[in-house]
Design brief:
Elements (H helix, E strand, L loop, with lengths): L8 E6 L2 H10 L3 E4 L12 H10 L4 E4 L11 H16 L4 E4 L10 H11 L3 E4 L9 H11 L3 E4 L10 H11 L4 E4 L8 H8 L3 E4 L2 E4 L17 E4 L1 H17 L6
Parallel strand pairs: 1-2, 1-8, 2-3, 3-4, 4-5, 5-6, 6-7
Antiparallel strand pairs: 9-10
Length: 256
């Protein structure tokens, strides 16, 4: 019986409160709140987290990442992450999304343990730092040893579509000890295929679209300030949820 039998679960990476509410409207089961999603995501502001927590009825996880770039962090950056996690605990968030590597590309277990200790009873997802680890199999065992609920991964490829076979192997290696959640490049058009190949039961997507600016007189001479915004599209979320449900209910391989 596949891990997908009887259930499917979509988490949406939301870059704002508006996106988080759109994700909920579309049927997402969990939100990962972040800022600067177009740059890979960083930790959102205190006010953004607090407002999302007040407005959402579904679980809220918050990305803990102090900057863009690699995942090798110094002491000051780790102090920032610890304090951001303390904020999430105080605001009643359901979980955090974190990760750190050492200079050799291995999971930085001591730093991650400190972050997880700060999280306390909050759930923890290990983010896509995993995809740039030097040895995925070894990294998976390290993340399992930390006690994370799940790892978010594209199978060390540019997208979960390209890494689907590797994700399936990671799920087999995890053997129920921890969740393995495909993410990166998932859409309503390809998520069912990734579900069938991987056998995963949780999936991660932004489901975003570009909105035009509402300004009647945009600053045309400042191109980087003239655009609209990226926001989660509830219709895309709805379509992705429906695609996952179709795998569970219509494909004999995913029925118990």
């Amino acid at each position: 019986m596949s891990a997908l039998s009887g259930a499917s679960f979509l988490e949406v990476a939301a870059n704002s409160v508006a996106s988080a509410l759109a994700a909920q409207e579309g049927g997402a089961r969990r939100v990962e709140l972040c800022a600067a999603l177009e740059l890979g995501g960083v930790t959102p502001s205190y006010a953004e987290i607090a407002t999302a927590r007040d407005r959402l009825a579904i679980p809220l996880y918050v990305l803990i990442r102090p900057r863009t770039g690699d995942f090798l962090y110094n002491d000051f950056e780790c102090e920032v992450m610890l304090r951001d996690i303390e904020v999430c605990v105080a605001l009643g968030c359901n979980g955090v999304v974190l990760g750190a590597l050492d200079a050799e590309g291995q999971v930085d277990v001591p730093r991650c343990r400190a972050l997880m200790a700060a999280a306390g009873r909050l759930g923890v997802t290990f983010h896509r730092a995993f995809d740039v680890a030097c040895d995925p199999a070894q990294a998976l065992e390290a993340v399992i040893g930390l006690g994370c609920e799940r790892v978010l991964t594209s199978g060390a490829q540019a997208s979960a579509v390209e890494g689907a076979a590797s994700i399936r192997a990671l799920i087999a290696q995890a053997a129920g000890r921890m969740g393995v959640m495909p993410g990166a490049g998932l859409t309503a058009g390809n998520i069912a295929s990734v579900a069938r190949i991987t056998g995963a039961d949780q999936f991660h997507a932004s489901a975003k679209r570009s909105l035009p600016s509402g300004m009647r007189r945009p600053p045309h001479d400042l191109a980087d300030m003239a655009g609209g915004e990226w926001r989660t599209d509830p219709s895309e979320v709805r379509a992705m949820v429906a695609a996952l449900e179709s795998v569970c209910t219509q494909d004999p391989a995913y029925q118990s």
